[in-house]
Structure formats: C-alpha cells, structure tokens
C-alpha cells in the first residue's frame, strides 16, 4: 500500500501545481481541487505527508519510463542479433571442419553483418579466406579484427600466415613477433616465425630467390661476350 500512496502523493502534488497555473478556467481549477480532495480522502493522505514524496517529480518519472520503453525493442533486437551471429559462427566453424570453406566464409560474413564489432568473426573468416587462397582478403580481415581487439594474438598469427603466403616476409615476421608478445608460449607462432625469418634471409641472400637481374643486359654486356668467346 505504501507504493500506492507514494504514487497518489505524486499525482496530488502534480495536480496542485497544475491548479495554480493560469492555463485553466475557474471551473477547471475547481474540478482539479475536487479531484485532489477526493484522492486525499480515499487514500487518507495530504501534502504534509512528505515522507511519501518520491525522489523524482511525476513528469520526470513518466519521461524516464517512456525513454526506457522506447529503448527496449532496440535492446532486444541487438540481443537477438548477437545470439544469431554466434550461431552463424558455430555453423561456420562446422563448415571449416568439413573443409567447406566457401560456406564458412558465407556464415562468418552474415555473423559480421549482425555483430560487426566482434573480432572473432573477422579472424575466423580470415582463416577461411586463407584456405581458399584469398590471402589479401584474409589480411584485411585480420586487420579488422586487430582494430577491434589489439590484443587478439590469433589475429596477428593468422595475418602472419597470410603475409607469408604473398611473400611479405618482413611484415609476416612483425606479425608473428606481435603474436608471441601476446602469447609467448604458442609453439605454432614460434615455428611460423622461424619459417618467415628464414624466407626473409633467403630473399636477402645473393643466391636466394629474391635476387633478380636483367638477362638481356647481361648477354649484351661486352665483358660477358668476351668471357664466353
């Protein structure tokens, strides 16, 4: 009953404020006074019962309630999107196990559309793209995952794999080093870092695959011609 009395007290206070405004005719003001008296009589309260006063004015309580109700559909919708996105991620993971990488990409893409701030979905799609040899797309997804979660070691590791696949060994080394900074005991990162470092050394070596030269210039070089004559 105390909650009801507090509500009625707030209503009476509101009606008294309204009755003192110049916007009502004398008859209307009299009607408000009658309404106030009826409420006070029925609920046995009056404005001297200040202990019944709510912490907020009746108008403020009403507006807060309206605002809260307006937000509920959006909150529910967002919650539903998060749940559905997680289900799509699980479907994508199952497709990865079945080596159905195209379907996995589709599931992760739909998950991202529902929940674009989840780094895991981008990172998982990067793995699927790599399996399809879409390395540049994989790199973009890893970058998006890292932008959302800069401490996501798996995103750095998968970006290292994609960078290695497109012969960007120096950048791959940097990615693996960052992955190891975040997850120092990960043997996969350690192994892949060594591979990328070796590839980088091979590229820098005079006998490595990174050495390129102009065969036409060599053949037309007088010193070369005299040497083979």
Automatic annotation (TrEMBL):
InterPro entries: SGT, SGTA_dimer, TPR-like_helical_dom_sf, TPR_2, TPR_rpt. Homooligomerize. One of its GO terms (biological process) is post-translational protein targeting to endoplasmic reticulum membrane. Co-chaperone that binds directly to HSC70 and HSP70 and regulates their ATPase activity. Residues 4-62 form the SGTA homodimerisation domain. TPR repeats lie at residues 85-118, 119-152, 153-186. The keyword Cell inner membrane does not apply. Belongs to the SGT family. SUPFAM superfamilies: TPR-like. This is Small glutamine-rich tetratricopeptide repeat-containing protein beta. The keyword Repeat applies. GO terms for cellular component: membrane; TRC complex. It holds the Pfam family SGTA_dimer. One of its GO terms (molecular function) is molecular adaptor activity. It comes from Pachyramphus minor.
